[in-house]
Each structure stands twice: as C-alpha cells, then as structure tokens.
Amino acid sequence: MAHRHHHHHHRHSRRKKAFGWLLAGVAAVFFVFLAVVLLFNDEAAHFLVGGQVERREFIEQRYDGIDVSHHQGIIDWMAVAQDTAIQFVYVKATEGSTHLDSMYERNIREANLVGLNVGSYHYLTSSSAITDQFSHFRRHVKPKEQKLRPMIDVEPEGVKGWGKKALQDSLALFCWYVKKHYGVYPIIYSYAKFYNEWLAPRFNHFNIFLARYNGEEPMVEGAGEHNIWQHTDQGYINGIKTEVDLDIFAQGTTLADLLISQ
C-alpha cells in the first residue's frame, strides 16, 4: 500500500514537471511573439531593413502639395491655405470631350482667391478625339487662372482600347496643343507601373508625376526621373473633409519647375 502510494506520487511529480515545461514553452513563445510585435516597427525593423520603416513613416506624414476633384466635396480653401506645407494644388477640370468636374469652377476660383499656387488637370480618355478633348479643356481652363503648368492624367481605366502607339501619339498631340495654347509643356501624371510599361521612355523628358502607394519611391524606366510622387491617396488636410492625395517633390524638383511664369 505504501509502495503504491509512493509510485503514484512519483508519477504525479513527473506530470507536474511536464506541465511546468509546457507552460514555460507557451510563455516563451508568447513573449517572443510579443517582442516581435512591439519591436518590429522600431529596433527590429531598423536592424532588418536598414531603417526603411522609419523612412516610410516619415514619408507618410510629408507633403508638398495635393490634388483634388469633386470627390473631396466642398473644400474650405482658406483653411487649406493656412497649411504652410502646401506649395501647390492641382484640381480636376475636365475628362474626355464633354465632362466638366462639378467642383472645378468653385475650386479654381477659391484656390486663387486665397493665394494658392494652383493648376488644372485633364483626365485623358480613349472615347473621343484628342482635338475635341483639348478644345473642351481650353474652353474651361483659363490661362489667367493658372499658376501651374496644366497636367494630363493618364490612367489605364481611361485609355482602354488604345494600343501603346495610339496612346503615346494621342498624349503627344495633347501635349503639343497645351504648349501651343499655354506656352508650356504639361506635366504627365500616371501610375508608376503603367507609366513605365506604356509611356517610358518617350515622355521621360517631361515633368513626370507618378503615383505609388507602397512606401517606395517610384523609378522611371530608361534615362530620366520622376518629379512628383503621389505617395498616398489617404491623407488628411485641414479644410478637406475626405481623404485626399498627398504629393511630394522628388529630390532636385522645386515649385519653380511647376510654375508657368518664373
């Protein structure tokens, strides 16, 4: 009887020890996981990727300009103008040969009234002739209201149906019309990947405005560099109730590169 009791106690002790090791293992895994979660965006990230996370967080908080359309609703331009970080503003004017952005006239007027450096952009489409699209743009975008070079927005959704050559030739013609009427070549906006696949290197000598939202600065195929980087479409600015695109100058680019008259 005593022997059986001693054997049972020994078996119980081994179970207790095994359970203790199990708990210790679970705790160790938990604390390693917690350490990774807490440290990943700081010391661990700095060690693993050489500070890229810190740079990304810095970029997310930085902007030199914004671009807006009717999607931003009614904007309090006086409040926007008080943000000293904003050096330039692009507002959507036209799309295709018939569409005028519903907020364009209000936006261009009020952005000018508060003294912002403002310019207008056209959303290029494959659904109508370039001559008709430019005539529509010229009708609404008055030179006296423009402080910045016009911009052409080239996105895959808008230019569906055009092959590479048709797209490039159409864009080149619109650029020529802009130069003839406004005295300067336009800025070309696109997504970084789409630009490199469809427009580079033919338009690399233009001022290029590229969107890329993964935190990594866009690269341009061939000789040339981008001038403006739209690094997020989820920024917040005083005076604008919705999310807004935030744009920063590439190294070597300044406001002077965008202004129509120096």
Polypeptide structure, described:
Residues 1-11 and 34-51 have low confidence and may be disordered. Helix 6 (130-140) packs parallel to helix 7. This protein has helices at 2-39, 43-49, 52-60, 77-81, 104-113, 130-140, 164-182, 192-198, and strands spanning 65-68, 88-95, 99-100, 118-123, 151-153, 187-191, 207-211, 228-235, 244-249. The protein folds into two domains: 11-49; 65-257, TIM Barrel. The longest helix has 38 residues, at 2-39. It is of the alpha/beta class and 262 residues long. The protein has an eight-stranded mixed barrel, surrounded by four helices. It contains eight helices and nine strands.
Give a quick summary of the entry:
The protein is of the alpha/beta class and 262 residues long. It is built from eight helices and nine strands. The chain is globular.
Task: Fill in the keyword field for this structure.
single chain; 262 residues; TIM Barrel; disordered N terminus
SSE layout and pairing:
Elements: H1 2-39, H2 43-49, H3 52-60, E1 65-68, H4 77-81, E2 88-95, E3 99-100, H5 104-113, E4 118-123, H6 130-140, E5 151-153, H7 164-182, E6 187-191, H8 192-198, E7 207-211, E8 228-235, E9 244-249
Parallel strand pairs: 1-2, 2-4, 4-5, 5-6, 6-7, 7-8
Antiparallel strand pairs: 1-9, 2-3, 8-9
Helix pairs in contact: 6-7
Strand order of the largest sheet: 1-2-4-5-6-7-8-9
Per CATH, the superfamily of the largest domain is Glycosidases
Judging by the overall fold, what is the CATH architecture of the largest domain? Alpha-Beta Barrel
Look at the helices and sheets and give the structural class.
alpha/beta
Radius of gyration: 28 Å
Total individual domains: 2
Helix content: 40-55%
What is the CATH topology assignment of the largest domain? TIM Barrel
Principal-axes shape call: globular
Mean pLDDT: 86
Distance between the termini: 104 Å
Give the topology string: H per helix, E per strand: HHHEHEEHEHEHEHEEE
CATH class bucket of the largest domain: Alpha Beta
How large is the count of helical segments?
8
Q: Flag low-confidence runs.
A: 1-11, 34-51
Oligomer: single chain
Largest beta-sheet characterization: 8 strands, mixed, barrel
Q: In percent terms, what proportion of residues is strand?
A: 15-25%
